[in-house]
Amino acid sequence: MKKKGIMALIACGVMAAGATLGMAACGNKEKGITIWASSDDQETLKTMIARFKEDNPDFSVPITTGVVGAGDAVSKLSVDVSAGADIYCYANDQVVNLLSYGALSAIPTKMVETLLEENDKDSVESGKVNDKYYGYPYAADNGYFLYYNKAIMSDEDAGSLETILAKCKAAGKTFVYDMETAWYVGAFFLGTAEGCVGGTYDFEYEGTTVVYTHVNFDEKAPGSEYTIGEIGGQALIDLANAKAFVPGGDEQISKDLNGDKNGTWFGACISGTWNAEKIQQTLGENYGTAKLPTFHSSLDGKDYQMGSLLGYKLFGVNPNTKYLEESHQLAAYLMNEQMQELRFDELQTGPSNKKVAQLEKVQKNAALAAIIAQTPYATPQGAIPTSYWDAMKQFGANVKGKTVTSATLKEDLETFIKGFEKDIRADK
Question: Is 137 in contact with 314 (CB distance < 8 Å)?
Answer without folding.
Answer: yes
